[in-house]
Task: structure prediction
Amino acid sequence: MTLDVARVQKDFPILDRAMPGGGRLVYLDSAASSQKPQSVLDAMTRYYETTHANVHRGVYGIAEEATRLMEEARDKVGRFIGAGPSHEVIFAKNGTECLNLVANAWGRANLRSGDAVLLTEIEHHANLVPWLMLREQLGVELRYIPLGDDGHLDLSELDRLVDGVKLVAVTAMSNVLGTLTPVRLIADTAHAAGAVVVVDGAQYAPHLPTNVGDLGADFFAFTGHKLLGPTGIGVLWGKTELLEAMPPFLGGGEMIRDVRLDGFTPNELPWKFEAGTPPIAETVGLGAAVDYLEALGMDAVRAHEVELTGYALRTLAARFGPDMTIYGPTEPAERGGVISFAYKDIHPHDISQVLDQSGVCVRAGHHCAKPLMRRLGIGATARASFYVYNDESDVDALADALDATSAFFS
Amino acid sequence: MGLEDLYREIILDHYRSPRNRGELESPPAVRVEGYNPLCGDEIVVYLDVQDGVVADLKIGGQGCSISQSSASMMAAAVKGKTVPEARAVIRAFKAMMSIHEQRLDADGDDAAEKAAAEMAEVKLGDLEALQGVVRFPVRIKCATLSWNTLQQGLDEAGAAQAG
Result:
């Protein structure tokens, strides 16, 4: 099954919006946040127009219906990532909150001063700072799997690095380099060393067929808004026995079974980790996003992105040659559709500003991965990233706009 | 709102040929780093204050055309000035950056009047080329990065001499 991109594009109303220059929107920043198909927008609107009430509380009809819609979304999301029981699927605000949940709830219960946690040099700040905070607060030792010069993780010292660690937290795909990491190999090595494995799937789950069991994850975190869903909804999947043994993260309504003046009893999974009124409409929207992607087929989504990334790498190399540096693996099959680049000596901010004149949206900056930027010896990159609605004409528009950028600054 | 409003020729000139790039030995010079957490730009200001005068000033670090040209023009504008004069230029520049497009309609608006008064205090000269930046709000931080860093440097130099 191949992706019919022209048909997909018709499902995304934002692609029809008017642009200041009279051209079209060329959206190449899906690694930051994806656009939303009409079906997601409709599902959320329909929910508010017909069903809204608080969940897990009311005994009246629409409250039960709202609860059912939210729990159906949980089931869908669980199936989408190959999870077992739906109670292993926890909703939070975003991917960052999911990783903070693990660091705080699992970390504080299981880590002591001197315990080691293994990360990588290519992590997003969301999978770095929560652990750096534990380093400050608990005195845990942080180790890092280095980045090799080929854009892949350098695993040559993995056995030594993993020795004695309690937890390994690794991204499945770099948001800067597009690098797909060997999660399964790292997880197997970590498990053999007795460590728990946390996978940051924020860039992976939206773009590749995902099975948390096949990846070897103990925890898997991702966010809805990069996956055609709304903002304000993140997903943490965790193994039942780990989640059961963890204390709650946030306290409040919903996450309790009983509260007394001298204590409380937490609720059962997954609600133990869902304090307060959840983002109900957002879960419904995320469920619709999952439906949309499954209808396209995640194999087709991945195949399309490999093809488009290959086209982009070839096109940019042919048109800009040595004037352009593209970071990360050179082989499209080893990476996602995220292309970070340097062009001549034009600062990424200036590139992004001039591209904007042509309606071309790319990200410029450190992409919330400052240690990786330091490792690469640069302050910032420009980054173009693809999704189901992008095609070769978007790559061509990027290249044309880069020509204009060059002309402007020369 | 065209790119020419943002990238005036004088800005591009300072970007391509930045003035006062380099380092000063620290100490005696004060060395201050400034970061734009948004984009990763960083600037280093080396400041040599003698007898209440900005005797020398050098700029290091890396950043976009707006932050680099702003730093370059800043160095040219405050070098040789007394500390109070340099502070007045900082105030005038930051006032210019805080003025919004509607300022001409903002009769009687206290903030606008205050900003106008601060700008009238000193001649910004070439720096006025950066005025177009206010129409691109995300870039204002690029333009003000070196100025905030200089301000911090003047504070530190003052504290060092007072101590």
Remarks:
- The domain at 5-30+298-409 of chain A is CATH 3.90.1150.10 (Aspartate Aminotransferase, domain 1).
- The first strand of chain A starts at residue 26 and ends at 27.
